Amino acid sequence: MPDAVGPHPQYDVFADEFLDHARNNLHNAHYDRPTCLALLGDVAGLTVLDAACGPGLYAAELADRGATIIGFDQSPRMVELCRERVPAGRFRVHDLADPITWLPDQSVDRVLLALALEYIDDRTSALRELRRVLRPGGALVLSRMHPTGDWLRHGGNYFDARIIEEVWSRGWHVRYWLAPLEDTCTELHEAGFLIERLLEPRPDAGAADIDRDGYRRLTQQPTGFLAIKAIPDPRGSR
């Protein structure tokens, strides 16, 4: 069993397929994106850092809502897609595992980290960097796979953080961390965040027209994602 996800940009080889998949599917368009955008709140006039920005679907919506967008992803192709979708944004290739040396302290109002926490080996260090660039009064919104759903699918010791390798339905090979909710809360605490809200979202009504069985499952079972809004702890990191 591998002991690290590593720096390889896994999504690069299927970036265009992922864009087509995520643009209007149940899990991304009608479940995760609406939840994260709601937690971010009114972003008009704010600077938002889209960390692990993917193909720019969140960034485009945030830009439409009046935000100034800065984004990065470890996949060069994802960054190209972002630049095409949000030409007014500033996007670059960057790995979450590395310090964000190109952003000064307290330079952004919001940080979005959507469905990317699982791919980071040193999550506390990455979260510390995101806290560093947040202005006082700012907020981090992150989403991750629901740990209960992960455990139901994979079994084993729920509290044992470990790496999973699997092939998703379109033949996409992925490697990511399986970790209990307690670990995510501890990592946020050690990085200097306070959890303001934790949501176990339900898909919006439009999802039922796309996938009725999936819609029913996600409205009744903890098998999808969860989302957290965290704010900088004024006392600093622990």
The CATH architecture assignment turns out to be 3-Layer(aba) Sandwich
Main beta-sheet strand count, sense and barrel state: 7 strands, mixed
What percent of residues are in strands?
25-35%
Q: What's the number of extended β-strand segments? A: 9
Kindly report the average pLDDT value: 95
How are helices and strands ordered from N to C? HHEHEHEEHEHEEHEHHE
Instruction: Give me the number of helical elements.
Output: 9
CATH topology: Rossmann fold
Shape type: globular
Strand order of the main beta sheet, please? 3-2-1-4-5-9-8
CATH level-four homologous superfamily name: Vaccinia Virus protein VP39
The class by helix and strand makeup works out as alpha/beta
What is the CATH class? Alpha Beta
Q: If you compute it from the alpha carbons, what radius of gyration comes out, rounded to the nearest whole angstrom?
A: 17 Å
Contiguous low-pLDDT stretches (5 residues minimum) are none
Helix content: 25-40%
Structural domain count:
1
Distance N terminus to C terminus?
31 Å
GO molecular function, one term: methyltransferase activity
Domain Methyltransferase type: 49-142
Keywords: Methyltransferase, Transferase
Protein name: Class I SAM-dependent methyltransferase
